[in-house]
From TrEMBL:
The protein's name: Uncharacterized protein
Organism of this sequence: Hydnum rufescens UP504
Source organism superkingdom: Eukaryota
Organism lineage: Eukaryota, Fungi, Dikarya, Basidiomycota, Agaricomycotina
Principal subcellular localization: nucleus
GO biological process, one term: cell division
Keywords recorded for this protein, A-Z: Cell cycle, Cell division, Chromosome partition, Mitosis, Nucleus
Similarity comment: Belongs to the SCC4/mau-2 family.
Pfam short name (any one): Cohesin_load
Length: 710
């Protein structure tokens, strides 16, 4: 019995070799990703070599690849070459199998462009645009930003109205990505007169994309353009503006973005706090992803300005979307926008894992209250850290992603974990849980050094060490750490454009550190002057000048730092009426932000102004301050008292503030002749005094200097 013999022609072989890469490629998380790149490159080289040999021999049987297939081969070779470069196999240290790959990519792009521009090959025009974009990506990888942007503009200028919408959108989005990568972001709020080009002259690309989407009647593109504009403003730290229609700020752009995405929160009482198209809600994945990005920005913005009432409904909506996202297994960062006419547009957004972990930390940051036995702010942080440490599922990537994309995601997740640890340390310090705070700081230093991201967090870590030393009465260490944190977050001192110290803080850490130093020095001066007559008290002009500067700097940051600035202004004011006015303003901001940690301090200081003139009013404020101080570190269950421990160690809460309030209560009881209450208060004060005395011993490494080296 005989079987028919199948003849494999060279044309079939070339086509088979050309189709291999799409079948061989694996996502970067797969162990065979690099092997797939090697095999894909080998098959493309063989395909082109075989076709070149046939062309030289003037093959008469039609086995040579046609212009379209050959252009596709050159384009695929350029794409695979860029994946190899982004995997870290370029340059002089490249392995033998891809040595000189940069030259191969340039040659492939040049030959592909030559074919696409042939006068009789108008159908290859789409390859021309794609190859030009690949060329710009190669040039950008070679750090030639100016040439890359020039190529992007050339691509956009070569397009016409007859080109497919997908081609036009791709060119615009690539140009915007190149624009962002070539603009350094500096401390805009700290150096208003030296703001970056991105901040002072926002890119018009988003507006062009929006008008183009409106012209083609693609509502998803219009929403995407609005979101791109908002994220660009976040990158530029443009938080505040004039709220006019042409406003280029987050404050002015947020209402438009929320409205475009169907997020409505300003509704009458009794109505739903949000709404969207019922046909799209829960079905349109693209819309939900866009809503997540806008909600993340809006929650952060309203938390930043201290408006907890506006942040709360947005956080609730974000939680609903994250619950839906948690049920989506294996999702990646790429989404498809259907377009008519023509092929769909594939865009890359934040990875679902990034959004999911950001949801925990944003929930914690927006819940500013740290008072109570189990505050929600700490619960969100603990749940987020548990989710990070127990993560087992593989991160989703499409097969055309590169190792650089995987490394970038890993780096981003490492930074998010560092954010979690920093926030947990801050919460523990506010709750007087100093042992746990010290452990978090040690862990975040080890974590950031492991992933080589310590310079990004050096200023924040140092500020937390300053707060820890301040809270445990280690004055010298606190002053050193405050000054170091301010130095590390100062662009002019450290040159953060090259070292990335304090990256992304916009000078917030610097101002917070200087405010902490001023507050500590004012307290030390008050203790010193308390035992001296007025004529011998130290004026300390340098401290007064620094306090005035810090008060002005705090005004640039709404929310908590503005409240701190008002507080410092009240302390340094010599006019009682002005001091009361500033304290009331600070209390209003703290109450609106639900920041009970700051509210307790403001209430205690305000009571001092009414202590001699309106004792009943002062007692009410002192009682509230005492309750808040006791709640900053309350145990999860009642009755956790060990009778065998030394006196003071069983006390939970802010013992220095509690002692100060207790001494005021003791004086009030003595004035009124309430001897029984006075005796009880004296016993409580002794317990508080013992707790204050042992504060330095609660930190193990109180004498170890914080590492600040790069």
């Amino acid at each position: 019995m005989s079987y028919p013999t199948r003849i494999v022609t060279t044309n079939n072989l070339s086509r088979t070799l050309l189709s291999l890469p799409i079948r061989l490629l694996h996502p970067p998380s797969h162990p065979n990703h690099v092997l797939a790149l090697y095999c894909s490159l080998l098959s493309l080289r063989q395909c082109i070599h075989l076709n070149t040999d046939l062309d030289k021999n003037n093959n008469a049987h039609g086995d040579v690849l046609g212009p379209e297939m050959l252009c596709r081969a050159w384009t695929t070779l350029a794409e695979i070459g860029l994946l190899i470069l982004r995997a870290g196999f370029g340059g002089d240290a490249a392995p033998n199998w891809c040595r000189g790959i940069e030259g191969e990519i340039e040659d492939a792009i040049a030959k592909g462009l030559h074919l696409s521009l042939a006068p009789k090959q108008s159908s290859l025009r789409t390859y021309h645009t794609h190859l030009m974009l690949l060329h710009s990506h190669l040039v950008l990888w070679q750090h030639n930003l100016k040439f890359s942007r020039s190529l992007m503009k050339r691509v956009w200028g070569s397009l016409s109205a007859s080109d497919l919408p997908q081609t036009q959108y791709t060119a615009l989005l690539s140009q915007h990505a190149s624009y962002l990568s070539s603009v350094p972001v500096t401390s805009v709020m700290n150096n208003a007169n030296k703001s970056s080009t991105l901040a002072s002259r926002p890119s018009p690309i988003a507006e062009t994309l929006r008008s183009l989407g409106s012209r083609h009647r693609h509502p998803d593109i219009v929403r995407l353009a609005i979101l791109i504009k908002l994220r660009t403003l976040v990158r530029a730290q443009k938080w505040h503006g004039t709220m006019n229609p042409a406003d280029q700020s987050i404050q002015g752009s947020l209402p438009e973005a929320e409205s475009a995405l169907g997020l409505v929160f300003d509704v009458p009482d009794g109505s739903a706090p949000f709404s969207s198209d019922p046909t799209e809600r829960g079905v349109n994945t693209l819309l939900e992803r866009m809503q997540m990005h806008v909600l993340v920005i809006s929650v952060l913005y309203y938390t930043f300005i201290g408006d907890s009432k506006a942040a709360s409904p947005r956080l609730s909506r974000l939680h609903q979307l994250l619950d839906v996202l948690a049920l989506t297994k294996g999702a990646d960062a790429f989404l498809t926008i259907p377009l008519t006419p023509g092929p769909p547009l594939i865009i890359e957004m934040s990875h679902p894992r990034v959004l999911f972990e950001l949801g925990y930390i944003i929930s914690s940051v927006s819940k500013r209250d740290t008072v109570g036995r189990d505050p929600r702010r700490k619960k969100f942080l603990a749940a987020g850290l548990l989710e990070i440490n127990n993560r087992t599922e593989e991160l989703g990537f499409p097969k055309w992603s590169s190792l650089a994309d995987a490394r970038e995601l890993e780096d981003r997740l490492a930074k998010i974990k560092a954010d979690f640890l920093c926030e947990m340390a801050g919460v523990c310090i506010m709750r007087s849980e100093f042992e746990q705070a010290e452990g978090c700081l040690a862990e975040v230093i080890a974590h950031t050094r492991t992933y080589s991201i310590f310079p990004f967090f050096a200023a924040r870590i140092t500020l937390h060490h300053a707060h820890l030393a301040h809270a445990t009465t280690q004055v010298e260490r606190a002053l050193h750490c405050y000054r170091a944190a301010a130095f590390l977050d100062d662009d002019e001192q450290t040159g953060s454009s090259s070292h990335n110290y304090g990256s992304g803080t916009s000078g917030f850490v610097r101002v917070a550190a200087r405010a902490g130093e001023v507050g500590l020095r004012l307290g030390l001066r008050a203790i010193k002057d308390h035992t001296l007559p007025v004529s011998m008290r130290d004026t300390d002009n340098d401290l007064n000048t620094m306090a005035c500067d810090v008060i002005e700097e705090c005004k640039a940051y709404p929310g908590v730092l503005t409240a701190v600035g008002r507080l410092l202004e009240a302390i340094t004011s010599k006019e009682i009426v002005k001091a009361k006015h500033k304290l009331k303003a600070s209390l209003d901001i703290a109450s609106r932000a639900q920041d009970n940690h700051l509210r307790a301090v403001v209430l205690a200081l305000t009571s001092a102004h009414y202590y001699d003139t309106a004792s009943d009013h002062a007692q009410v404020m002192l009682q509230t301050a005492r309750q808040l101080a006791a709640g900053m570190g309350a145990s999860e269950t009642r009755g956790n008292v060990d009778s065998g421990r030394p006196r003071g160690e069983n006390y939970c809460g802010n013992s220095p503030l509690g002692l100060w309030v207790g001494e005021r209560f003791l004086e009030l009881y003595r004035r009124r002749g309430a001897l029984d209450s006075a005796r009880g208060q004296m016993e409580e004060n002794e317990t508080l005094r013992a707790a204050v005395r042992i504060l330095p011993s609660r930190v193990r490494n109180s004498r170890v200097a914080i590492p600040l080296a790069v």
